[in-house]
Each structure stands twice: as C-alpha cells, then as structure tokens.
C-alpha cells in the first residue's frame, strides 16, 4: 500500500468509527474525561504536577478532538493533531517549535506506524527538557488474536518492547503499566498489574453508567510514561 493510500485508509477508518454510537460527541466527552483524569493521576503518581491549567499539551492522534476539548475546559493550552490534518506521523515533522510543549499524549496511534523512529524523535524534539510523554497502545500479549482485524494496524508492542524502544529515542524514567482508567494509582505498581487489569477487573471503562466506577477499567492495553532527557 502506498503512503497516500495508507493515509486515506486511516482517515476513512476513523470517519467510520466516528459514525458509531460509541463515538458520538457526548459519549466521547464522557470517555475522554476519564482519560484526562487517568493521565492526571499517572503524572502525579510519577511526581509531576499533573494536568494543571496553562500546561502546554499536544494530543497526537486527536481524532474528533474530544480530549482536546476536555483539556481546554480545564484551562490547558492544548493542540490536537491527526492524519485528517494532513500529517503523516511516520515521516513528517510535527509543526511545532523545539522544546515548546510540557506534555504529549498519543492514544492508539503508534501501532498504526510501520516505523516509529521519526514519530518518537519528533515528540522528543517538541517536548521541553523534563517534559512528559503519555502513550497508549494495545498489548500484543492480549491483542494478538484480533490486532490485525483493524486494517490500519501495523506494529504491535509488548510492555517490554516499548520499554526498550523509548530510551533509544532519548527518553528516560520509563514507566510501562496497564491502561487502567480511573483506578487507584497503587494498582499500577502491583507485581502482576497487567494480569489484574486484564482478568480481575470485571468491566471496561465504557460500560453503562449503572455499573459502579470501582468495577470499571478492565483493559488489555499498555500505558507508557516517559520523560525527555
């Protein structure tokens, strides 16, 4: 598949998702509020201030902009970028100055790239020294059966492969944990945290509102934190 056809396929796939019930604006704001609160909790868990007002954040793979909107509502200075903006993260520079961003978020995007070298190098370039990257991607250990059912998926990751990849691009303080949403921060430090997140939490985060929050968050996905050195 050529780069152009691949980019068109990704945009078409995202537009198809946008028409489903899960991706309606109200539901996306609700879900991305949970994402925001989880990112905030993780940053604090790693000794950072969290997602505070006036923090400069860039959301890569912003899709419909729901996370961008949630960030704006909370006073962050935020920019969202995606393939629909004409950017190919596999080969293009991110159109932002060096060291101009405090936090970069990248939810479900790195697995769509055949090679993440430019993507990760560009993230490091735009982050200020000490700035944070928050990255979410499927965990191959749990997703191998259906990973390639998404025709835009190219590169799977495991917690270990991602932990080894990030330092090669100038990141440090690597912390790779399960993507458990709005659960107590101590769960990230459990010895078998990935097993707990996948098998012992009964419901996913998008379960109906009637399900108590304490029972939501089941996930077979990776959440990685890293800092620019």
What does it look like?
This protein is of the alpha/beta class and 229 residues long. The protein has 7 helices and 6 strands, in the order H-H-E-H-E-E-H-E-H-H-E-H-E. The chain has helices at residues 3-18, 25-45, 66-73, 117-126, 140-143, 159-165, 193-200; strands at 56-60, 77-81, 101-107, 127-138, 171-178, 221-228. A 6-stranded mixed sheet has the order 2-1-3-4-6-5, with helices on both faces. Helix 2 packs across helix 3.
List the helices and strands and how they pair.
Blueprint: H1 3-18, H2 25-45, E1 56-60, H3 66-73, E2 77-81, E3 101-107, H4 117-126, E4 127-138, H5 140-143, H6 159-165, E5 171-178, H7 193-200, E6 221-228
Parallel strand pairs: 1-2, 1-3, 3-4
Antiparallel strand pairs: 4-6, 5-6
Could you give a short description of this structure?
The chain is α/β, with parallel strands linked by helices and 229 residues long. It is 32% helix and 20% strand.
Distance between the termini: 36 Å
Based on helices, strands and strand pairing, what is the structural class? alpha/beta
- Strand order, biggest sheet? 2-1-3-4-6-5
Gyration radius, rounded? 17 Å
Summarize the main sheet.
Answer: 6 strands, mixed
- What is the H/E string? HHEHEEHEHHEHE
Helix count? 7
Which key terms come to mind for this protein?
229 residues, 32% helix
């Amino acid at each position: 598949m050529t780069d152009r056809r691949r980019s068109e396929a990704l945009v078409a796939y995202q537009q198809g998702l946008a028409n489903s019930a899960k991706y309606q604006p109200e539901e996306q704001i609700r879900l991305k509020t949970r994402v925001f609160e989880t990112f905030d909790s993780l940053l604090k868990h790693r000794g950072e201030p969290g997602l505070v007002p006036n923090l400069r954040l860039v959301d890569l793979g912003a899709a419909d902009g729901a996370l961008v909107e949630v960030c704006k509502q909370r006073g962050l200075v935020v920019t969202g970028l995606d393939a629909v903006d004409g950017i190919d993260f596999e080969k293009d520079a991110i159109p932002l100055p060096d060291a101009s961003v405090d936090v970069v978020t990248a939810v479900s995007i790195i697995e769509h790239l055949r090679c993440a070298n430019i993507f990760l190098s560009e993230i490091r370039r735009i982050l200020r020294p000490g700035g944070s990257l928050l990255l979410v991607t499927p965990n191959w250990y749990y997703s191998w059966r259906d990973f390639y059912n998404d025709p835009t998926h190219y590169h799977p990751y495991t917690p270990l492969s991602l932990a080894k990849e990030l330092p090669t691009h100038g990141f440090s303080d690597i912390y790779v944990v399960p993507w458990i949403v709005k659960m107590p921060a101590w769960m990230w430090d459990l010895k078998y945290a990935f097993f707990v997140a996948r098998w012992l939490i009964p419901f996913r985060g998008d379960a109906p509102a009637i399900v108590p929050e304490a029972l939501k968050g089941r996930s077979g996905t990776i959440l990685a934190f890293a800092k620019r050195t």
